[in-house]
Predict the 3D structure of the following.
Amino acid sequence: MNKKKRFETMLIHKGYSSQDFHDSLNPPIFHSSTFTFSTAEQGEKRFTGEEEGFIYSRLGNPTVRVLEERMAALEKGEAALAFGSGMAAVSAVLFHFVYSGSHILCSRGVYGCTFGLIGLLHKKFGVIHTFNPMQTAEEIEAAIHDQTCCIYIETPINPTMELIDIRLVTDVAKKYGIPVVVDNTFCSPYLQNPLELGADYVIHSATKYISGHGDVIAGILVGKNKEDMQKIRMTTQKDIGGIIAPFDAWLLLCGLKTLHVRMDRHVENTRKLANYLKSHPFIEDIIYPGNPNSPYYFFWTIIHLKPLSNLFG
Ligand SMILES: *Cc1c(COP(=O)(O)O)cnc(C)c1O
């Protein structure tokens, strides 16, 4: 049966079949560094990729694999990789693209450590960058040059809450054949799916809404192309080594189950809080894209239609 599953169903079931694991409701935690082979020939086939199967947990682990399949489906991608932190995911994707002398075109605001990493790439390897507001096609186009290896955006930006029109950026990027990476941490796949808007990669600091319980530091990278993601798995993930522990992957699978309920409540609480603070005599200004005076209000309303498309789409 190939019936399309609802988002809420995928949060709980995608990538796991209890029949394969003694009918266990929850996925087992495979705390094993290494996997055994029945014969030397089998070992050889696994290493060459001729045969499917696990080898060593830095290259893949069954508990982690459940999380990766679930995140890929939630973000409408072909494959996902889980990392030991959001920054490990950011590093793996940036190292995938850059060469010395490359140029990264980045949104004006990004998470502090992403900003730090881009600075480090410049200082150590001569990778240059431009920070750009990306509010019009003209300003994006003017910032692209021959050596631009990727466009990296974060929206909503932490903590300024500026929004970027993802479709506007991907339309320009397509004209030049430049891949687009979107840090979707603040919306989670419940409110926004950048791959549907033309992006090539999605990053999450899973430490935030994916976990939802403040009990784990982790990162996720989702890509629209399986072969390309396999290349990242076998290069910048494997060789830099920022992988996630099986127990942390299991914690994220627990957290994910309530993502839709938590995100609805966050949205509702924020709206109430913003309304209350707006009329408070001690408050000068509130930065909230759900405020009708905000320049980003239009996009904010579109983002909040997303759960409806999850329901009926
Ligand atoms: C927290 C955060 C990161 C970094 O993730 P860690 O899990 O802390 O490494 C990256 N991007 C955004 C938007 C974040 O909020």
Notes: The longest strand covers residues 148-154. The radius of gyration is 20 Å. The chain has a mean pLDDT of 95.
